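Hey, I'm writing a tutorial for new members on how sequence and structure tokens pair up, and I'd like a real worked example in the thread rather than a made-up one. If someone can provide the structure for the chain below, I'll link this post from the tutorial.
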Amino acid sequence: MTAPERFEELSRGLAEGVRTRDGLIGLVLLGSSSDEARHRRDEWSDHDFFALTAAGRGAQLRPDLSWLPDRDRVVLTAREGEIGFVAVYDDAHVFEFAYSDAEELAGAVAGEATILVDDAQGTTAGLVERARARASAADGLDAVNDAKLVLVKLLIGTGRVRRGEVLNGGMFIRQWAVGHLVSAVRGRFADSSTSLRDRIDPVRRFERDFPEWGGRIADAVAQPADDAACALFQVFRGLEDGWSEFPSRAADVVAKRLNW
């Protein structure tokens, strides 16, 4: 568990590291790392952030992580893609961050955010403003389209499982189908989502807004892949009652093909 004092100490250490590292110009704490979402922090909260470099210097600076606070306590660092990084400390606290210039983050999305470091031109503030606007623009849920995609992912995933591709098929079922089912539920019952809803990832804190749906979905995916798909399908059909746009005919076709 990361104590609140330790969390704030690490935030201050990050800001100091960015300010003193040549070539770094900005730091943005995201999600529960930010001031506006600190109320959501618990023992499992990590640090999510953007660390911005001067324009064009991302590739040059990325090999160097010496600016991270308490560097001697870091037990693991790894890259996730070109600009994504993760670091784990000896108390199991996690940093997940993008380390790049503003141009490389041109497509970023952001919700809650606290800017700790910026340059005189306001490069970081501009990035955050655009990222928030992008998140708002992409926030609309299309329940009908997501419902259709639930069926597609279950059909493809179950077929692959029955072909013997259990790992790949399981991803379609437990990851893609679940993601679209969650989005369909949120879109179908939009008024039931609370301020806890993550505007970037609909699955985040879904159980808090929809505990009954969340429990049924969790129980379904806990089963072996083929059974999980069938159970998810039954959960999915719980959306049908009173919803004229539910893809009932397509659902019947999928059920017949898969002998459900």
